[in-house]
Automatic annotation (TrEMBL):
UniProt keyword Lyase, yes or no: yes
Full protein name: CbiX/SirB N-terminal domain-containing protein
Organism annotation: Halomarina halobia
UniProt-listed Gene3D superfamilies: 3.40.50.1400
A single GO molecular function term of this UniProt record: lyase activity
Length: 290
């Protein structure tokens, strides 16, 4: 049976860079030849969630949300727009970070759709965060002597957003790779504004758990941390703040290894990925020590 992958993301009418990671990761998976078809769909751009399944010929479709956390979009908007029959969030049987997949029918196209949990809560995202630290420092062995801050938006509207940040922070802490690992937020305590207050290390890598670079990652966080007074003037990497070297990595979702997480989500849902999954990881670059 032919199988297709559909990567669904938010997109933006205002930020042309918002959809770039989605297209980049889709190209990586497409080049590996795992799926008969690979499609992208967006809430704020074309092609839309509502139309994408009509562009797919395969009978079996794996839908992977390129979102950080379980919440309004993954639990309500996407299933509604895809017209997934019988969807209910209880099908995921999740505590906020453990969504796997649910197999349903799409009512108007007569296809089996395996609707996956978001990439941001998959265990493999911990590897991507570590890879982001490697990329920004240029050191495949980065860890000893370094602190690592995993940064989220933080909001009272979606408690699962913070859960995803804490989940990966704890997983990376258990790796015993970095001297210190902390979860920080833009809109709740502990705040990224005070990043140097939460670390004793002289060097701290800051990785925002965002899918794409945009207003928050390119403007708010750099200014809030004090690595620049005006984002339009840019910032140094590393930049010194209160005697601490801050290695600011930008959005984790732009890391090439994200393509591997997308494939792992589909594999967990039953996709026949064979040895092609390894080709995706090789193409994106392996996490040192894996």
């Amino acid at each position: 049976m032919s199988q297709a992958l559909v990567i669904v993301a938010h997109g933006s009418h205002l930020n042309p860079d918002s959809s770039a990671p989605t297209f980049d990761h889709a190209d990586t998976v497409r080049a590996a030849g795992i799926f008969d078809e690979v499609r992208e769909a967006f809430w704020k751009e074309e092609p839309s969630f509502r139309e994408v399944l009509r562009t797919v010929e395969a009978e079996e479709v794996f839908v992977v949300p390129l979102f950080v956390s379980e919440g309004y979009f993954t639990e309500e908007v996407i299933p509604r727009e895809l017209r997934l029959e019988g969807w209910d969030v209880s099908r995921w049987d999740s505590d906020g970070t453990s969504a796997s997949h649910a197999s349903l029918r799409a009512s108007d196209v007569d296809k089996t759709v395996h609707y996956c949990g978001p990439v941001g809560t998959h265990d493999a995202m911990s590897d991507v965060i570590v890879r982001r630290a490697q990329s920004v420092t240029g050191d495949p062995d980065v860890g000893p002597g370094f602190g690592l801050a995993v940064v989220g938006h933080g909001t009272e509207r979606n408690e699962n957003s913070a859960k995803a940040i804490h989940y990966h922070t704890e997983r990376i802490r258990e790796m015993d790779r970095f001297d210190e690992v902390a979860a920080l937020f833009m809109d709740e305590e502990p705040e990224v504004d005070d990043v140097t207050d939460y670390f004793e290390s002289d060097d701290v890598v800051v990785v925002p758990l965002f899918v794409a670079d945009g207003f928050h990652t390119q403007e708010d966080i750099p200014e809030d941390m004090g690595i620049t007074d005006d984002f339009r003037e840019g910032y140094d990497v590393p930049a010194e703040v209160d005697g601490t070297r801050i290695w600011y990595a930008g959005a984790v979702g732009t890391e090439a290894l994200m393509a591997d997480v997308i494939v792992e989500r589909a594999r967990d849902a039953g996709a026949d990925v064979g040895g092609s999954a390894e080709r995706v990881r090789e193409r994106a670059g392996d996490v040192a020590g894996d």
